[in-house]
Fold each of these.
Amino acid sequence: MELLFVEDDARIREVLTQALEDDGFTVHVATTGEEAVAHPSATDVDLAIVDLRLPGIDGMEVVRHLRQISNSPIVILTAHGDSNDVVVGLEAGADDFLSKPISGRELVARLRAILRRSSPDESDAKFQPITMGTLVLQPSTNEFTIDGVPAKLTRTEFGVLQQLMTKSPATVSRQELLETVWGYDYLGDSRLVDMQVYRLRQKLEAHGVRDKLLTVRAVGFRFIE
């Protein structure tokens, strides 16, 4: 697996890069935002890790740029407890966030979980096509079409939609989405779910699909035909 690691702190960069390489990752390093957006591997890596506090072009702009050119998972690194960074990063297109400081062992475990949910087993029944009217979701290829027109979703948005369509018309709780899409239990954060649902709803509405993805107050979300 190849990943792009954007971090300006040399000590953090070296420690975490070593942990990732020891676990078999091929790590492409960028130390500034400018270097990251110009990196030749940006469109080809399986995952990107972006520190938000970068000199020059900040991490948020890097996330926006990477999201425009790739659907691969993007993980943001942020100072512990900086909730505003998390929300803005998710709005920019990130799939997940990690708080610093973080150990190499925890980083590897979290990234492996993200990559597992991004690589479906096509033989599994849960990866069979799902059709609801003119909406067709193909889990084996991560494709979603509306009236035959492809709708571009990130892998995390796709995973959320898959769970909601599979369970339709039942309501799916935030915790259930965290466990099935992100693979978390106590590590989860409901802001991840709310922001991804918000982005997913925007994309559906841009394709003329309205009033299908509903919020059930204090419970979760449901998708209806």
Amino acid sequence: MATVDAQRRELSGGYVAINDGFVVAIGVGTAPAARVSIDASDCLVTPGLINTHHHLYQNLTRAFPPMTNSALFGWLRTLYPLWRALDEESAHVSAWVGLAELALSGCTTSTDHLYVHPRGGGDLLSAEIAAARDLGFRFHPTRGSMSLSEKDGGLPPDDVVQDHDDILAASQRAVERHHDRSHGAMVRIALAPCSPFSVTKQLMIDSAALAERLDVRLHTHFAENDEDDAYSVATFGCRPTQYLEDVGWASSRTWLAHCVKPNDDEITRLAAAGVGVAHCPSSNLILSSGIAPIVKLRTAGVHVGLGVDGSSSADSASLWMEARQAMLLAKLASGADAGTARMALECATRGGAGCLGRVGEIGELSVGSVGDVAVWSLTGPQFAGAIGDPIERGCAVGRRARSTPSSQGSRSCETVTS
């Protein structure tokens, strides 16, 4: 059992006991009596994985042929016209499918960056929250937005952007309606203007002020590729990190999607500000964005989580796959000894909790944490000869996990024994 707790305990023959959705005991030896027991012999037991960046509605345009060989800006211009048709029904269906797919990869908590709100589309955020509740999934959706259309020098067409004041009002309503501040909450809301090339500078400033007043988190795309950096320099006269500081987003309230292109000075500044990063390796590869410097970011003290990104740019939503990709890319970029299985597991769990401001609550197995557990079988032909370290075996080969999110009912007591 890999607890990924503050001491990074690894327990051979361990158990975790869960009562009313929270871990009440963890250790080695005889497990407490329980109404339900799961025998996880020949398995690796970990905390449920955390997805820190997604666009669930993009399940509706997965692997769309015209955009499979495009870089970011051309990719977006191809897909924006299709996303105009998004409504409550399609938001609910795509969220249900996307979250179910995540669960198959051991994921029990997910964010979503829903920034497309077509006119007349309805309450899309509430529709996807309903899907998460139906599945019993721990959910951190963001009230995303776009305010800068093509006529204003942005990328999106006019009918998928919104007015500045309408965005702020809708953001506040979403927080007031859905945000749960309690320990172990199933739903929390963040504010998420889409990107520097789709919102105004004033919206970034005002969203930061609103997040401060409502005490919620902030999320946006950041330094995703060379085009993104060039846009920032041409439009704002500075690199993305300076822009982030100028609009009041350089704080521990913020986590950023991608962060592929920061230089060493910017990494130091992001770490000092307490900013988190959602690393999206598969999407970055498909869109040829580059390799995010996650080893340097983690060394500097940045919380680095993992994100599957939307299925239009990453094809599949597997947190296990992203963990493996993160491990391999770290080896490629920073040396064979830098990208380890434990690093990848920590990004997929504790690092994600750091991005969401929930360290000690999710992404680990410790007394008082939520009882979200993933059980990974280590048997079968694909594990033949893999007789060493179970964490290395799990990350090297992997398979579908049995996810047991603690939200799926008020259980009087459950134990998982490895």
Amino acid sequence: MDETKYPGIYENWFGKKKFLFTKSLDGKIFFGEKLIEGYRELDPTRSKLGAAVIKKISSIGLKENNLVLYLGASHGYTASFVSDIVGKRGIVYCVDFSPRVVMQLVFVCEERENMIPILADARKPLSYQNRVTKVDFVYCDVAQREQVDLFLKNVKMFLKPKSYCMLALKARSIDAVKNPRKIYEVVKKELSAELRVLSVVELDPLEKDHCVFLCQYK
């Protein structure tokens, strides 16, 4: 495996196609991904974080030992790779509001001591304030109309000053008709009022009508 400029993410070429990997904490797989000599394949068509790397985002803002608040963890696919990146001394607080999804997330978290499942609504950070410490990184992948607002609420409540955060924005959840690029422009202005916007990357065609914003808390 070859190291990339993104801490904890590796790459390998098979023919003319590049594949992404993280070094597995325990040598286990959870989603049918390939495992090659202890490295798990990160599919960029299933992960906005992976797609952002393929699209050459300037940085991912994540590193070993980070404490991470992951909003919209779903079944835990991308969150499990974040778990690999931060390592055994890091923590990933995995928030999702769907009981059905969290039941599946729990099975992954039971195998990973650094992943903590939290059944909660990301729009209401006060409801899990007593279960989450101050963190080094906030990752948000919540396909709701108010996704920008809930992202900023959680950043202000949990993110340490000068630390990084990432919003994986789904344009169609904000407006199903409006041109996604127009939405990205508006969102960038909203984020810039509260954060330093460091990188903006559209994820098409890997993730249609999605855009990732890497920011730093002022």
